[in-house]
Design a protein that fits this description.
Elements lengths: L1 E10 L6 H4 L4 H21 L2 E6 L7 E4 L6 E4 L7 E11 L2 H15 L4 E4 L6
Antiparallel strand pairs: 1-5, 1-6, 2-5, 3-4
Length: 124
Amino acid sequence: MTQYFLTMPHDTADEPTMESMQEMDPAELEAIIAAVDGFNTALTESGAWVTAGGLMPPSTAITVDATGGEAKRIPGPFVEAPQYVGGFWIIDVADEEAALGWAERCSAALQSRIEVRALQEGPE
């Protein structure tokens, strides 16, 4: 089995949070939450679920750089970008085709694009 990282992009200009989602049409928000709950339940029941989470926007990030003589804490993300990872799932499935199938279901549930990347395996 291989683990895959499924990520959900957000536009940097929007920076959605749980608070800002409350501004959505309540019926639309309820439908999305129900769809994601259904997706997460299906992942769990299949045995593919490892973990998942939502990330706060990049404006809340602090980049730590301890590569020099003194550690630095720099407010903001390590890179400026028009989009960022807003949420993720780590799944454990047989192969890339299975991961892509789950990503398709996730994309449909969230009405969002989903990026799929395999996690690197450790050295033997």
